[in-house]
Specification:
By secondary structure, the protein is α+β, with helices and mostly antiparallel strands. Helix content is 48%, strand content 11%. It has 25 helices and 16 strands. Strands 1-2-3-4-5 form a 5-stranded antiparallel β-sheet. The relative contact order is 0.07.
Length: 612
């Protein structure tokens, strides 16, 4: 569902972020802002700041930041749409749904009703399996043999599905109810509905919960050596294993206490680790880690540690996790890879070596940057030019997955050092331009606001100027971006030619300025809290949010400062074009640019004299 931007603005204007955050965090007035202990990571001294003027929060410890909607999403684990509806209800506002047709609204209502119905069915099954566990000495004996306590079993709602083919018929009055099949509890045979039978039989049952605590599926493990060892619920309207993580609901508080999420390979690992002092463990559901998994984890913690077996299969799984993690590896996040000895999983390692040794192993886990280099260097003989060239080819595909930032720039230098060429030469080899932190193909982004009547040429799909210019130093371009995102009136104070100059910058800055131009045209001046919501799903959402988050709360964005940055950049661009013209012996163009530079200097001096 798409929620109108003007409504988001109205909602954020009514919501007081200090009051909302204050429901969950004890805040203390400190100057113009409020501070407290961050609810998203464990800390002893306050590094969490809330600005009533900007209606924005920021943690200087873990990097979490955002507006009231972001805070509630992070804290409660709800989706954007769910959070907006809940917050709107608190302020007596009706979320507009005019953008959806009656058929779409009806379909959404049916899907919501279906979800509630299916989770109710699954919850009833979970209760029944839990009761059956108490009556099965064999199942209890199996869990005790694995070292699990009764408390651990209760905390995770473990149960037992008996051996019979139709035991759920004793739980649900109508065993032929299609909902049982849709929930993944019952399988209908090929011969018709009379051949229905339970999907899970003679298995330890692990209820899978959503971040809101709803039972959305099950994992079942055999008590012996039968195959398959684990059986998961099928894909259903409420269960998508590529998005869900086992144990995340139970681990939420521990993620903040420990400061990181430990991603393991199985249900039993999660339950055993929680019992042994590592309740911050979660597990994928028989699939490789996906970007959706990581998006969900990063809502609760800025640090993720993957735990894999040290064998070839473990390395392959780690490589897939690396590829999923790279696009999300911003400068305020940490991703590491823990490889245990082949004879151990996390559970057995802790029991053999102790919790302290495991904690030390986690600390010594391989950082994402090192693992990227190791993965790129696999089967490359770095003592030869051919091997180093092979590494450069391997590394390019991985490095280009990274978002723009300090981590990407540092890794570029490390890759170049291993290849034994300069970083600038490596970028040229890869066909990239140097962009002061961003890294993209030579081809410029085509991102532009939609065409509209009365808009300047640069907004209506007219060809862009082929300036061939590099981005100005990141500090200048990024500071300009910070100002226009945090000071609503700054953009409108610039001229059309200033807009063209900023929008013509290479990614990520140029596309973000162009996007902002479209926002200004469609909605007028907007505070950062509203812009932040409109940015959701944008290619450079993380970069823009990171730029704003890096501005100290007490720093005021002055439109006059932006004008000065634009003047400086205009002069620098003219000078670069002059150098290029001179190098190409294009003297008429050089003289024309010289006059343009003089006019720019004259304009700058006039503005300075007027206090601009």
């Amino acid at each position: 569902m798409s929620i109108a931007q003007h409504f988001i603005q109205e909602l954020l204007a009514r919501a007081d972020i200090v009051e909302i955050v204050g429901r969950y965090v004890q805040l203390k007035k400190t100057g113009a802002n409020f501070t407290g202990l961050c609810p998203f990571h464990a800390e002893k001294s306050p590094s969490f700041s809330v600005s009533p003027a900007k209606q924005f929060y920021h943690c200087f410890g873990c990097g979490k930041h955002g507006d009231a909607i972001d805070f509630l999403m992070e804290h409660a684990g709800g989706s954007f749409v769910e959070t907006v509806h809940d917050l709107a209800q608190q302020y007596g506002l009706q979320v507009p749904e005019d953008e959806r047709s009656p058929a779409e609204r009806e379909r959404a209502a049916q899907e919501s009703e279906k979800r509630v119905t299916l989770t109710d069915v699954l919850a009833r099954a979970a209760d029944a399996y839990r009761l059956r566990l108490k009556d099965s000495p064999r199942a209890i004996g199996y869990l005790k043999g694995r070292g699990l306590s009764g408390q651990a079993a209760r905390d995770f709602g473990l149960g037992y599905a008996p051996e019979g083919w139709r035991t759920l018929a004793g739980v649900f009055a109508d065993y032929a109810d299609p909902l049982l099949q849709e929930a993944g509890l019952v399988i209908a045979g090929e011969d018709g509905q009379d051949k229905r039978y339970d999907r899970f039989r003679d298995r330890i049952m692990f209820p899978i919960r959503s971040v809101k605590g709803e039972v959305i599926g099950f994992g079942g493990r055999v008590l012996g050596d039968e195959k398959p060892k684990y059986l998961n619920s099928p894909e259903t309207p409420v269960f998508h294993k590529g998005r869900e993580l086992y144990g995340l609901f139970e681990a939420r508080a521990a993620l903040r206490e420990h400061g990181y999420a430990l991603v393991t390979e199985g249900y039993m690992d999660v339950v055993a680790l929680a019992q042994l002092g590592f309740a911050n463990a979660v597990a994928t559901l028989g699939t490789a880690c996906t970007p959706e998994h990581l998006h969900k984890l990063f809502r609760f913690t800025a640090s993720v540690v993957f735990s894999f077996d040290g064998d070839a299969a473990g390395r392959r799984a780690a490589r897939k996790a690396l590829e999923a993690a790279l696009p999300l590896a911003t400068d305020v996040r940490s991703v590491k890879f823990l490889f245990l000895p082949p004879e151990h999983d996390p559970d057995s390692f802790i029991r053999a070596e102790g919790a302290e040794a495991f904690a030390e192993a986690v600390k010594a886990a391989v950082p994402l940057s090192r693992f990227l280099l190791d993965a790129a260097a696999e089967q490359c003989d770095l003592s030869t030019a051919e091997g180093r060239s092979h590494l450069a080819t391997n590394a390019r595909a991985l490095w280009q997955l990274l978002p723009a930032g300090a981590l990407a720039q540092q890794l570029l230098g490390e890759i170049a050092a291993q290849v034994q060429i300069g970083a600038h030469e490596l970028q040229q080899l890869w066909g990239l331009r140097q962009t002061g932190g961003a890294h993209r193909h030579e081809k410029k982004s085509d991102a532009r606001p939609p065409a509209g009547a009365g808009r300047p040429a640069w907004q209506t799909g007219a060809p862009r100027r082929a300036s061939g210019l590099r981005t100005p130093p990141a500090s200048r371009a990024s500071r300009a971006l910070q100002i226009v995102l945090t000071e609503p009136s700054a953009w409108d104070r610039l001229s059309d030619s200033d807009h063209v100059l900023l929008c013509d910058l290479p990614p990520p800055h140029g596309p973000l300025f162009a996007w902002l131009a479209g926002q200004a045209m469609d909605h007028g001046p907007q505070p950062w809290s509203a812009l932040r919501q409109a940015l959701r799903g944008h290619e450079y959402e993380a970069f823009a949010a990171g730029q704003v988050a890096s501005v100290p709360p007490d720093i005021v964005s002055e439109p006059a400062e932006l004008a000065g940055i634009v003047r400086t950049e205009r002069r620098e661009q003219i000078k670069r074009r002059m150098d290029a013209a001179l190098a190409a012996s294009e003297l008429p163009l050089y003289r024309s640019l010289l006059r343009e530079l003089a006019a720019a200097d004259e304009s700058s001096a006039a503005d300075s004299g007027n206090g601009g």
